[in-house]
Structure prediction request, 369 residues.
Amino acid sequence: MSARPTWVGITGITAADEPSAGLAAAQSLKRGPGAAGLRVVALAESAFSDGIQAVPAADEVVVVPSPQREPEAFVAAVRELARGRRFVLLPGSPGDMVALAPRRDALSQAGVRHMLPSPRQVSSLPFLGVARVAGLRIPRGTGLDPANLRKLALRPCQWPLVLRTTDGRLASAAALAEIPALAEALARPWGTATRAHEPVLGSEISIAVLCGGHGRPLGMAAAVPLQRGGNGALWSAVTTADPGVLAAARRILDVARWTGPGELHLIRDEAGALWFTGVTPGFPSWISLAAAAGRPLVRQYVGLCLGAASLLPGAYRDGLFMSRVAMDIAMPITTLGQLATEGAFSHDTHHAGTLRAASDHAARARVAH
Prediction:
């Protein structure tokens, strides 16, 4: 990268006990080689939110409107941050990816570099047919709408059913009567599509992928989640370089023509067969493990946004274990005060390019609490 700094704005930076990919992505960029040419900007929705925990992992924290609740205002805020800078946006949660996909053209016109999938791609439902073409099994299920609910009532199902949204949220229904309320809750706040499918007994496999603008897979890494909390947060995982798993992922991507980062969800059943259960837009929360194993997909994402288009060479490390811990972070109260009053915080307050949020964003943070 040139001497000109690259600003990387990352959303979805949440607490360690319910992490999205945002915090792990920021950590990956700051730890890897070439970090000196990057300025990581944590885009927090409030000075009092979990985003404040990003201060040690980012050069700056800036308060902006929520990309999920106020996407148009978010685009306007990022436009100002990108003005006169080489600015890359990485939505750090699946929900942010889904909310911003319809606005990817507006972001590009604002000078923001990104690799957002299309609105159609962020729905996992079309990819179920893709998996069949790729030769993978798919759990029996259906999209949730009134007509399909009637079909569920008329045919025998193996309960409990798994409900999965296009932004990766999960729920479980033990009876048909539970589904309408669960589906309505999962559809908020932006009408997310939900699919219900029968459970598959086996080992979960998560595959982080990064594809170019024409759908060509440029990098991937797979991991087996070992422990999840009650809220679904991943606490430990181990990488796997199983050739069969990676070949299955490539077959899916060759047909799907995905754009940008994503997470493929597979299950290996007790007989060894692979089942495809969906795709979630954006990097998974264990993405820092991929970097530690030799697959710096977040760094590659930044490079692709800046025009690079190279494959990641060589194999990544198999059997590398990650354990996540919750950490207490102490910082001066003046840091919180600056976030609340100015809407931004920088480790280097004398840097000529230090970002500053608009005053209404700082006011928004104060009024919200």
